[in-house]
What does this fold into?
Amino acid sequence: MAKLIGNNPSQIPTNGDLGSMAFEDRTNYITKGASVHQPFRNLIINGDMSIAQRGTSTTGVTISGYKTVDRFNFGIDNAGTWTITQDTDVPTGQGFAKSTKLDCTTANGSLSADSLLLFQQKLEGQNLQYLKKGTSSAESLTLSFWVKSNKTGTYICQLRDIDNSRSISQSYTILSASTWEKKILTFVGDTTGAFDNDNGDSLRLLFFLVAGTTYTSGTLQTSWGTYTNANRAVGQVNLADSTANEWFITGVQLEAGTTASDFEFLPVDVNLQRCQRYYQITQEADGSSDIICSGAMYSATEFYGTLYLGATTMRATPSVSADTGTNAYNIVGNGSSADASSLTLNNIGINSSIPHCRLEAVGSNTNVGQGNGAWIRFGGSSSNQKIIAEAEL
It folds into this structure.
């Protein structure tokens, strides 16, 4: 309901006052682009680093991939060895509980040309259509984040348009060692090349931490242009030059416009569900003999069942993996049980209301009997057994 304004906004109006009062003009009261009208304005998922389904720490990292905190990918090539951790060191009084920490455990002070270390998130094209990229009305993007490192100096952030092979980079400076600092960078809108309207990898946000001459021998490309390796990370410090080096980040927000709004905190259930679109642990053993699903014996030794992959529809048909090992699983039914060392997951479907797949298990010696009902359970050989569905970009 519109608010009445007039003689005295703090006074309760009488019937006689109403003739001299007017309804407040909500159109001019707050702009259309203001944050109050923009739920889910942050293009980055899990920017507060609060969800870490894969675990809270990974050591000895020398190979690229998704490691700890959800939705953030670690890229590395000839840039030392790292431990990646979901950490509790955060900027004071900002509402954050978690950060991501990169800790150098084996240094590389003499980089090769192709040395590279980066922290990135990949974004679906269908989530970017309102940016109007490739038109004369293309929206600018503003990136804000909190960062901390003992190594001061120049660092590079890049937006990379995968669909049209274009990019733009901006630098920021860590001024004070081991001190949380908030950084804000604005990238102008790109009037060339629209993002594909699909579930593919269209835009990447990259934080460079190490870059060899392959990526630094040109001129930093601060305007949108053709993707050129030599212009991507000019001026980037070498975070890998000492085992004393570490880098923390949290509060990553990428939004349309030229102004950084306050970080958009989401409820943990919403944040988790957004992450599960790309990666989810569908089953995990809390102890021995945890039941995975029920089904029936297709033959004397083969169990078939339907495994539900959770309530979140995934980005694409996922790859589903299950732990293997001696006595990893048991087939149980008709008063009997048999070991099954591995599972096969087929006929994966994501287009139904509940994503699912067919689970097949073969028991080495079962007396359950063909056609009888049965169930499959974890065999208890490990308390950390998992069944994982992954549809990452």
User: Anything to note?
Assistant: Residues 1-7, 17-36 have pLDDT under 50 and may be disordered. The chain has three domains: 4-30, 40-276, 279-390. The chain is about 5% helix and 40% strand.
